[in-house]
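Reply to dn_fold:

You asked what the input looked like. This is it:
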Amino acid sequence: MAKAADALAGPAPDCDLCPRLVAFRRDNRKAHPDWFNGAVPAFGPATAEILVVGLAPGLQGANRTARPFTGDYAGVLLYPTLLKFGLAKGTYGADRGDGLTLVNSRITNAVRCVPPENKPTPAEQKTCRDFLIAEIAALPRLKAILALGRIAHDAAITTLGQRKAAFPFAHGALHRIKDGLLLADSYHCSRYNVNTGVLTIEMFEKVVAGLLKAIG
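and this is what came back:
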């Protein structure tokens, strides 16, 4: 039980495995001492059947609030959608203390620390992958992963020991991976994707609805 709890806890807030991210975090701490500025923990119960995987914490979002997709635009689409489909309870207030809770779902990131220009390097993705591997292994009821964006998709595929060429990223795709685990793809719910029409509310809701139907 303790081992599973450690895996779900993820890296320590002051994780020092990636020198570039540590330096960036240090600079942010000087500029914004009231922000979290650390490796952001996952959010949601260990009994979740659905794991939402994003890219990395946003500078003024999770890096500030210490909760994935909280405080920046991406959460404005993600959390209301989870609420609509019964995967969350409460009211999203863009704040870790808003009282919102997740139901049968959990949210994490492929890279736990905010990267410069929101672009983690391949080496940083590889280093942080061990935490995603441990987290997935520690979720006993996991049935599906919802990947938000190509990098999150690739991280999930590699974490699951599969070849990326066998499971190409495509918005709306539903992949059946080993042991019956499902992987659903969506474009990332970023402000840029929404403002440019790459991703609409209807498109995102359709992905979530399809995934829930698939897992029964």
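The first helix runs from residue 2 to 9.
Hope that clears it up.
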